[in-house]
Amino acid sequence: MSQIERFFTGAVITAASSAATTTPRVPFGRYSGGGVVIPSTGGVTQIRWHASSGAEDTPVQIYADGAAVTTAVTAGAFPFPDACYGFAYVAPVIVGAASLPLSVTVKG
User: Would you call 86 helix, strand, or coil by DSSP?
Assistant: First the structure.
């Protein structure tokens, strides 16, 4: 029986408000899934998902079907939206607070 090896990694990042340039980019290209864990919202109401093709490139808003890709936020765990899967790096930019620590996990 052949076995497919899976790998998993996680980190805590601090997402920034309305500033894709200062929100850390999550390397996502080689992974098959990912998500964020938010223990407390700290006033954050939404994540606006951004993407870039390189670690040093400025992230831009991701759009799907003509609309910005967003996630409404409450305390909990949220998978990366499907629209993120085509990008090498994603950046969760928050709305409603200046910054928010997030636990980010990715799995391949």
Answer: helix
- The tens digit of pLDDT for each residue in 35-55 reads 999 999 989 999 999 999 998
Question: What single-letter DSSP state applies at residue 17?
Answer: B
User: 83 in helix, strand or coil?
Assistant: helix
Reported in sequence order, the residue ranges of the chain that DSSP labels E, i.e. its strands, are 8-16, 26-27, 33-38, 46-52, 60-61, 63-64, 67-68, 70-72, 76-79, 89-95, 99-107
Cα distance between residue 83 and residue 91, in whole Å: 13
- Each domain of the chain, given as residue ranges in start order, spans 23-107
**pTM of the predicted structure, to 2 decimals:** 0.86
User: How far apart, in whole angstroms, are the C-alpha atoms of residue 25 and residue 91?
Assistant: 5
Q: If you count them, how many residues does the chain have? A: 108
